[in-house]
What does this fold into?
Amino acid sequence: MLTLLRDLRRLRRQLDLAPPARASSLAIRHVDAGSCNGCEHELTLLSSPYYDLQRFGLGIVASPRHADVLLVTGPVTSRMHEPLLVAYAAMPEPRRVAALGDCALGCNVLGAADAIVGPLDTILPVDLRIPGCPPTPEVIAQALLGLIDATLTA
Amino acid sequence: MTGRSYREEIVAARAEGWHFAGLHATSDRAHVRTLLADSAGATRLETVAVQEGSVPTIVDLFPAAGWDEREAHDLQGVEFAGHEPLRPLVDHDLRLDRWTVPVRGHDAFQVAVGPIHAGIIESGHFRIHVVGERILHLDARLFYKHRGLERAAEGHTLDEGLAYATRACAACAVANGVAYAQACEDALGLTPDIELARVRTILLELERVWSHLNDLAAVCSGVGLAAGNNHFAGLTERARRLNARLTGHRFLFGTVHIGRSELTLHRDDVRAAADEVAALRGDARRGWHELRFNRSFQDRLPDIGIVDASTATRLGAVGPAARAAGLAEDLRASSPRLAYDGFEPVLPERAVGDVQARVEQRMLELEQTFEILERVLDGRIAPAAATPGAPAQPIGIGRVESPRGATSCILERRDDNIERLRLRTGSYANWPVVAFAAADNLLPDFPLINKSFELCYACADR
It folds into this structure.
């Protein structure tokens, strides 16, 4: 196991990631409202050593009760409509909603009309739009850090 | 015509060694078609007319047909006589007793998980029946992500239909895309040339590289081994960057076309890709070596989530899950339309179908995939095509071994338009197997058992 830890330390030095430089944090609740799983796979890699978003105080939390941001992927299927509203209602104020990926933004959505109720901004007030199919981890990271900065200056 | 009934045909086919590979109702709801396959890669369709809204069930002959029949009932309204109770699958009935198996007894209670999970996980609901920590039974309710992609594709041209197949799932975009392209080419009487077969093989194996690396990272995270998770997540990132360098997209979107390939790569770029594949192989081995000798990691894996060979056969398990149980089934061994010459499925030494075997299976398959890539990543990549020659047909079939197992695509067409598209992915085949594997295990082991299959919800739900 020491080998892996040593490898990770070396990779960390090579990557020379920017220091956090923000005295703030953001707790994110992710809701998949019918994505193709692409946004999820990119979001997962935000915790990989190449991005290490936790160093900015960004974390995925296990309950909407702990969340500042609802991060929603997918075109919002009819079957995820209600669970999405329940998760939003469970969040404490102030709260923000972020639409992750083109489907959540209502762009080029494929599917049957009776199976999809989105886009997200017709259901919840969207504060942050992150386009892409799927957006790369860099794009997601920049958008989320931008949300922290905007909150700090507001 | 043999004069045999639909069920008699299925009984006879089963006795001859054919296995179930999918079932769907036609879009006019007039017929139900069952796809059968043999281990040499041959396929056949058995069609039965729907009479007074009903056809005989085959779920007693092939339990793997359970989900397919329930789906055809929910989406096309076909009854399956003898399939009782025919529980809703895609329809989300609010009444618990309509969609769960009744579990009663002293101290038995239910744990409800999802559809929204505590992490970055796709949406799906698990109703776990337990006594204390012991799981008695698991009812999985998926299809929260159902977008109606198959019926939305109807009426579109074959070219337009490709988007519906590939965007069903990002993790299987190439596998689903190639299965769809093969189904179209089968219907149009086209055969891929050598270069097209090679390019598709490269794309399919690049998809398997990041997918299997991601699965190993997920298992580490399921055990709580952060260093292992970080190691394999880092390799997953490198594999996706390689995809982007080669094709312009981290998930290889837009690389599969019907009857042709447009990918062009200079010899030096292909050589650089082969070098990165070799480097990934070395680093994957390095990580695997550490995992093998980590007691706290290894201690969690054996003897949980067991799916033995007879269960895997009965339930129609596919892919790494089936091979980890000792079934030497891999469509790559019988894919004349792809460049898998001389391929033989690899099996773990201890093929007992538990979490440990499925994890080891991923690493064995990774080694095999790296070998294939080293062979096919040789020389420049040029635009390629499929050539006419075979007779055109109204129905085409495409089958591809995705990272999660056999994926079948059936295309029914009228001229250049889609009449019915059916995509039955490896994840779709294996979800009922996950539910079975969970029974008799401890509740805290369920996430790990689930990760050892690492199925997509998106391409099951469509």
